[in-house]
Give the backbone structure.
Amino acid sequence: MSKQEEIQLAEDSLLHVYNRFSLVLDHGDGVYLYDTDGKKYLDFAAGIAVMALGYNHKEYNDAIKAQVDQLLHTSNLYYNVPTATAAKKLLKVSGMDRVFFTNSGAEAIEGAIKAAKKYAYTRDGFAGHEIIAMNHSFHGRTIGALSVTGNAHYREPFEPLMPGVKYADFNDLESVKAQITDKTCAIIFETIQGEGGIYPADPAFIQGVRKLCDEKDILLILDEIQCGMGRSGEMFAWQGYGVKPDIMTSAKALGCGVPVGAFLMTEKVAEKSLAPGDHGTTYGGNPLVGAAVAKVLEIMERDDLMAHVKQVGSYLSQKLDEMVEKYDCITAHRGVGLMHGLVCTKKVGEVSAKALEKGLILITAGSDVLRFVPPLVITEAEIDEMAEKLSSVLEEL
Ligand SMILES: *Cc1c(COP(=O)(O)O)cnc(C)c1O
């Protein structure tokens, strides 16, 4: 099949909800991907911050293959060891008390919303509570997750969505205060906004919200789906702020390639929230993804991946600062660890497309940000390679 035929095969049958790059990927190794013509790409997208361990990680692959032969699925009516092992490890690294595994990030958000609503319902004896979310946030595409996503363009065609959601400005404590009522049960935000353009929370903001929540028994829900699992240099980005959420969500790099998400909570929330009959999932946390999550956490801890992210992350940060100095079209740099954005005055879609020609996979965030979320195993030499490729792209455009 020619590349055009391969693309046509997909376009003939898949629902057209993505304007895809004309790139047909075939296999990957480390931080490199190869297309069906054998062309090599340095990958700074990691399947949207998923492939933290890189591609074709032998130990991880072997663990999944062994689980496929052992037991794929059981339903949640019975116990299995891989999922319980994954849960225990996840609680240990997060300091949370209870976890529910889902199949995706959006489902983790749905669960977090349900847990918060049920907590307030149990406490107050009535429903009808409100949630405060942030402008420019992104929490997923299902109706509940969309209801707390601060992007009118994504929301509008599907209204009316879940009622009782109010919007505040991220990193503006006063704007959050202004939305609080007697009915507020939760405040939700990404510790580092991803899709919205890579905006880390200000320490004063996140600490201020935590204090407000404590004063009013409002639950703080932190979405760590993109910024968690080591990407910030901490296992979860909130761990660098000296605050702890009541509920948090994870997905993306949690499974490093298998579809899995999770919402986690403290015992205080668990006691008063979801009980038997309140929530469930057929696939969520099956033995296959359990084995994957357990292995990911084992590898990250054993190889001290957080120390590596801090080190190469500061190198990447320095390289991106140099881009701001060197190119007029690059006007700002934001980010921590291995989650960065460059604000670009050239059309970012064109920069991405040109980067592909040069063998660099780069994605965008918001309307004017180039996003850098490589596999966490990236090295300084590979960061240099990215910087050279990006420079040549910017010089040619
Ligand atoms: C990707 C993402 C989601 C949604 O995850 P899906 O697995 O695509 O449903 C939610 N929140 C954040 C911060 C994300 O980056």
